[in-house]
Amino acid sequence: MIRIKIDSKRLEKMISKEDAGWIQNAKDKTKELELNTTLKIENIWRPIKKAFMDLQYSKCIYCEKKIEKNKYEQDVEHFRPKNRADSWVASKSLIEEEKILIKNPTSGSEPGYRLLAYNYFNYAASCKACNLDRKKCFFPIAGKVRMNHSKNPARMKSENSYLIYPISDLDEDPEKLIEFEGVLPKAKASNGFSRKRALVTIELFELDKRSFLLRERAEMLYWLFKALKQYDDGNSAEKKEAQIIVQEYTSGAEKHTNCMRCFKKLYRKNFSEAESIAKKAFAFWKSKSC
């Protein structure tokens, strides 16, 4: 995960480019939901999917894989679930070893965040593997009170959300919470709530287990290593070519940016360790591609 830097004015401009009347329509429908607590939420977000796909360089907001090629895999995800918030149980290791406590509803689910149904800062483009298979209607929090009657995400920090919202500066920078050791994500902090947020996010989306993601990262990591080495050892033409590759892989436009940026830092800090990781990545990638 990486932060997507954008403010409300620029995002509104991108949304209006896709649907000129969407912003006002969203405001009107939010007012209707406030006045009528039984009113059904309408799907008005489909027309602005392209705005979020463009904003995110056609990457899933959570796992950073590309989702442009298959439109059926592209979802407009509600970060805070609109209809209900279901109980999510952390693994035994997170509960016992990391002391992670989650404020779960006693009956299996509780009302969702209806008033955020049309809030564009509650949206993100996500792949179906992250959205439908894993996130579903889960939104684990550590706070005592779920602020599901609020319509302003900026005023909901007391919920202490375990999940990370990467768009804008409403939340912490994901790269300050999650880093990579080779192809595997891990918490950057050794303790505290930042560590717990990272661990829950990694576990809920299975960012450390999904073989497709691991293989993609391994392949890219290997080629990034080759480019970094070519930049160090090559002639002027080779250096120029390598620089383009390194910049592309770490710019934010390519998939798995966080992983690539972490590896680049490691390469500059400890070449022998980076070389060892690159060899392991190559072996893993080729073994999975056979």
Round the mean pLDDT to the nearest integer and report it: 94
Largest sheet: 2 strands, antiparallel
Reading the helices and strands in chain order gives: HHHEEHEEHEEHHHHH
Report the portion of residues in β strands.
5-15%
Helix share of residues?
Answer: 40-55%
| Overall geometric form | globular
Which parts are unreliable, with pLDDT below 50 for 5 consecutive residues or more? none
Strand ordering within the main sheet? 1-4
Derived from helix and strand composition plus strand pairing, the structural class reads mainly alpha
Radius of gyration: 20 Å
Tally the beta strands.
6
Describe this structure in words.
With 290 residues, the protein is mainly alpha-helical. Helix content is 44%, strand content 8%. A hairpin with a 2-residue loop joins strand 5 (178-181) and strand 6. The model has no long low-confidence stretch (mean pLDDT 94).
Descriptive labels:
mainly alpha, two-stranded antiparallel sheet, 10 helices, 6 strands
Layout: helices, strands, pairs:
Blueprint: H1 8-18, H2 22-35, H3 49-55, E1 74-78, E2 84-86, H4 92-96, E3 109-111, E4 123-127, H5 128-135, E5 178-181, E6 184-187, H6 192-204, H7 211-233, H8 236-250, H9 257-269, H10 271-289
Antiparallel strand pairs: 1-4, 2-3, 5-6
